[in-house]
C-alpha cells in the first residue's frame, strides 16, 4: 500500500537507537516520554505515529539491543576451535560490552531490566525472550561439545549453560556498578576453570 501524506522528518532507525540508549541507561519505568522525545529529537506526536506507544518503542528497543548482543557476544559460540574456547570468547566479548568500554552504557539492557514488570505483560515477555536467547546459544554450544566428545555424555547441559549465563548476568551487574573490562575479563577466566574435565 503506498504511503501518502507528509514524510516523517526524522530517521526512524537513528531515533530507535537513541531510545534504546535511554532505556539502557534508565530502564523502562524510570524513562519518561520527555526523556525519549529529547533523546530522539522528535515531539510526542511523531513518537506515537512512528512507534505506537512507549511500550511498543521499548519492545523494539529490546529487539534492537538483542540483535546487537547476538552479533557482539552470542555468535562467538561458533567461533573457537573447541566449544570451550568458544564459551571463553563469549565471556570475554561480554566483558568488552558490559564494561561500557565501547562507548555504550555499561551493563546489559535486558539483564538489568526490572524483573517482572507487573502489569506490563508484553514488555516483560520481550525482556524474558531476550534473556533466553543467551541461554539457547550456550545450550547449543554445550550440546555440540557433548555430541563431539569434548564433554562427557554425563554432562548436565542445562545446568552448565545456566551457570555460564549466570556468570554473564553477574558481570552485567558488576559492569553497571563500575567494574572495568579487566575486572570482568578476570571473572570470565575464573569461570572457565569450572569447565568440566573430559575424563
Automatic annotation (TrEMBL):
Q: Name one Pfam family in it.
A: TetR_N
Record's PROSITE patterns?
HTH_TETR_2
State if DNA-binding is listed as a keyword: yes
What the entry lists under Gene3D superfamilies is as follows: Homeodomain-like (1.10.10.60), Tetracycline Repressor, domain 2 (1.10.357.10)
Give the signal peptide range.
none
Q: Which PANTHER family match?
A: HTH-TYPE TRANSCRIPTIONAL REGULATOR YJDC, TRANSCRIPTIONAL REGULATORY PROTEIN
Protein name, UniProt field: HTH-type transcriptional repressor ComR
Amino acid at each position: 500500500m503506498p504511503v501518502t501524506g507528509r514524510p516523517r522528518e526524522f530517521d526512524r532507525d537513528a531515533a530507535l537507537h537513541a531510545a534504546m540508549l535511554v532505556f539502557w541507561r534508565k530502564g523502562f519505568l524510570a524513562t519518561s516520554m520527555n526523556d525519549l522525545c529529547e533523546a530522539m529529537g522528535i515531539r510526542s506526536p511523531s513518537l506515537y505515529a512512528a512507534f505506537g506507544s512507549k511500550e511498543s518503542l521499548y519492545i523494539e528497543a529490546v529487539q534492537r539491543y538483542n540483535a546487537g548482543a547476538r552479533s557482539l557476544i552470542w555468535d562467538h559460540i561458533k567461533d573457537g576451535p573447541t566449544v570451550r574456547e568458544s564459551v571463553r570468547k563469549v565471556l570475554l566479548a561480554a566483558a568488552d560490552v558490559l564494561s561500557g568500554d565501547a562507548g555504550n552504557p555499561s551493563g546489559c539492557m535486558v539483564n538489568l531490566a526490572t524483573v517482572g514488570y507487573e502489569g506490563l505483560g508484553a514488555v516483560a515477555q520481550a525482556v524474558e525472550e531476550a534473556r533466553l536467547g543467551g541461554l539457547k546459544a550456550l545450550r547449543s554450544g554445550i550440546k555440540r561439545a557433548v555430541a563431539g566428545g569434548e564433554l562427557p555424555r554425563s554432562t548436565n547441559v542445562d545446568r552448565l549453560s545456566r551457570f555460564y549465563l549466570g556468570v554473564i548476568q553477574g558481570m552485567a551487574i558488576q559492569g553497571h556498578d563500575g567494574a572495568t573490562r579487566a575486572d570482568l575479563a578476570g571473572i570470565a577466566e575464573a569461570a572457565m576453570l569450572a569447565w568440566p574435565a573430559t575424563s
